[in-house]
Amino acid sequence: MRQLEEISGPGDLRDLTLAEAEQLAGAIRRFLVEKVGRTGGHLGPNLGVVELTLALHRVFDSPRDRLLWDTGHQSYVHKILTGRAAAFDTLRQPGGLSGYPSRAESEHDLIENSHASTALSYADGLAKAYELRGVTDRAVVAVIGDGALTGGMAWEALNNIAAARHRPLVIVVNDNERSYAPTIGGLAVHLAALRTAPGYERLLERVQTQLPNIPVVGSPLYEVLHGVKKGLKDVLAPQGMFEDLGLKYVGPVDGHDLAALEAALASAKRFDGPVLVHCITEKGRGHLPAEQDELDRHHVVRPSSAGAGQPAAAKAYPSWTSVFGAELVSLAATRPDIVAVTAAMLEPTGLSEFARRYPERTFDVGIAEQHAMTSAAGLALGGLHPVVAVYATFLNRGFDQLLMDVALHRAPVTIALDRAGVTGDDGPSHNGMWDLSLLQLVPGVRVNAPRDAASLRRALAEAVAVDDGPTVIRYPKGATGPDIAAVDTDDGLDVLFRSGRADVLMVAVGPMAPICLEAAGRLVDDGYGVTVVDPRWVLPVPRRLLELAREHRLVATVEDNGCAGGVGSAVRHGLDQQGCYLPTRLFGLPQRFLDQGKRATLLADHGLNARHIAGTIAEDLLALRHDGAQDTVADGRLRAEQLAH
Ligand SMILES: Cc1ncc(C[n+]2csc(CCOP(=O)(O)OP(=O)(O)O)c2C)c(N)n1
Ligand SMILES: CC(=O)[C@@H](O)[C@H](O)COP(=O)(O)O
Ligand SMILES: [Mg+2]
Q1: For the chain, is the Cβ count within 10 Å smaller at the N or the C terminus?
Q2: What is the pTM of this model?
Q3: With a 6 A CB cut-off, is 256 part of the ligand 2 pocket?
Q4: Residues with catalytic roles
Q5: What is the pLDDT of residues 314-326, one digit of tens each?
Q6: Burial call 138-173: b when 16+ CB within 10 Å, e when fewer
Q7: Domain identity same for 117 and 266
Q8: Residue-range definition of the domain harbouring residue 600
C-alpha cells in the first residue's frame, strides 16, 4: 500500500479495496497524531473525520465535485488525500501548510474562510450557479459540524436549500456532539434523538451480540447484514425536522464505518435534490488524550510553544485569558447581576471557572455570536450586566447586533474581545485586526485596550460599573508580561514616559506600550523630546488626549489593529474636528489579509517594532524642521536613518 506522501490525489484511492482503505485510515490516524502532535493544530477534529474524508473522496470526484468544509479546521485528512502529506511538517508555520483549506495550496480547496457556519451558504450559491449555467455533471457537497450547525447562517442557508426540492446538494453533518464542549441547544437534543432512535439501537445491539463473530469487512455476509442494517435504520430511525424542512435525510450513519459511509454518500450522490447525510463521529477518535481532554480534543498546542524553549519572560506571566477569567470571577462574587455569555468557547475565552462557580449565570449560546449579542441586550434590559466573551475576529459576526440591539438601546453590556490584534497561527480570518475600526462606528460604545494584566483587571472593573451603554475590552492572545506603571496620570490618561521638549506625543494602544517605550528611548537618546501616553479607554478618543496632542509638534499612534479606521484615524479625525491640522503618524497593521505566522514576527514585519517607529518619527520631525517650522527638534545632527539601524 502507498505511503501517505505518495498519495497524489483522490484518484489513488478509488482502486483500493475496502480493507486497504481501512488500513489507510489507520495509517492516516497514526500520521496525524505524529505530525500534529509536533506542529500543534486541530488534532481532535481531524481524527474524527478520517473515514468520512476517505469516503467522500472515494465516492465523489474532487475537484470536479466540490467539497466545502465548514470552518475548515477539520481539513487535514482532505489535505493528505489531495497530495499534501509531505508538507505536514510545516503545518500552521510561516510560509507553510495552512491549518485551513487554501486556494493557493490546491485546486481541491474552494473556500478558506474559517469563520464557522458558512459552508451551507456557499453551497447554496454554488448549486444555484451550476443550475443557472446548466452545469449538471458535478456535485456540491458541504461538510458541516454539529457545532457549526448551531450558527444562524446555517439555518438561513438550510431554509433556502430546502426550498429547492430538485436542486441537487449534499449536506454532510459531521455530528460528534461537540464544539469545544458538548454542543448545546435544541438542535443537539434533536441530533441525539436521531442518533439514538430506540428501536434501531436496540435491534442493532441484538444483532451484533447474536452474531458468533463480526463478519469480515467486505465479505458477502457483511454486505448482506449491512443492507439489512441500513434498511432497518430507514424504518426505525425518526427522520425529524430535516425531513419536515424538505431535505431527504440519510442516517444516522456510523462515521467510522467506511462501507456504511460510502453506501450512504453514494445514495446521496444519486439523489436529485437536497439531501442531508447525518454522520456520527467521535472527536479525537483513536487518540486517548484527544478523547479525554476537552481542549486537547479540539486542538493541541505546539509543544515548543507550550513552555519549553519559550523566552523565560513569557513563561512567568499569566495569559490575558486567565487574567480576564479570574477577574470576572472576583467581580461576580459581589455583583450577582454579572452573567457570562459565550459562543461555544467557554474554556478558550477563560470562562470555565466562572461557569463552575456560577453555572446558572453562564450562558453558552452555541456558535452564535449574533444571538450572543442580542440576547445579551435582552439580559441587560432584564436588569443584568452580561459579559460576552468572544474572539475579536468573531465580533465581526455580531457587529450589527452590537450596533443596533446593544448600543442603540444603550444596554450595559460588556464585551471581552480575546485574541485581539494578530493571532498568527490561524491565518487571515482569525487575526483580530478589525475591531477597533468597527467599534469606532458604534455611537456610545466605550473601548478599552489594556496594556498589561493590572490594566486588564482595572478595565474590567470599570467596564462592569458602566450602566448606560456598552463597553468593550480587547486584549491579545498569549502571555501578558510585566505590568507597566504610569509615571503620571493626566485627566484619566496614563503617562508612561515623558522627557524633554514636546516634540512628539506617542499614543500607545494596549499591548503596544512596550515597543512605544523602546522607541521613545531611541528618540530621546538622539535628542528628541517624547511623551508616551496610554489612554486606556481609547474610543471615543478622550478630549484630554487631543489637548495633549496639540501641545506637541507631532502625534504618533501605535495599535495592533488595521490602520483604516483604528484609534489613529479617530485621533486624526478628532483633531480635524477641532480645526487643528497637527501632523499625525499612524502605526498599525496594513489593511490586508495577513498570512499565517508568529504574532511577534508579523507585528515586527508590518512596522510595529521600535526601530521602525523611532526611525519614522525622527524622519517626520526632521521634515517638520526643514519646513521652517519652529526649530524644536534636535540640531539636525541626527539623521533619521541612523535611528532606523
Ligand atoms: C463564527 C465562529 N465562531 C467561533 C469559532 C471558533 N471555533 C472554531 S471550531 C469551533 C467548534 C466547531 O464545532 P463543530 O462545527 O462541531 O466542528 P468539530 O470541531 O466538532 O469538528 C469553534 C467554536 C469559529 N471558527 N467561527
Ligand atoms: C478553528 C477555530 O476557530 C479555533 O479552534 C481556533 O483555531 C482557536 O484559536 P486559539 O488557538 O487561539 O484558541
Ligand atoms: Mg462537532
Answers
A1: C
A2: 0.91
A3: no
A4: 283, 369, 397
A5: 568 999 999 999 9
A6: bbbbbbbbbbbbbbbbbeebbebbbebeebbbbbbb
A7: yes
A8: 488-628
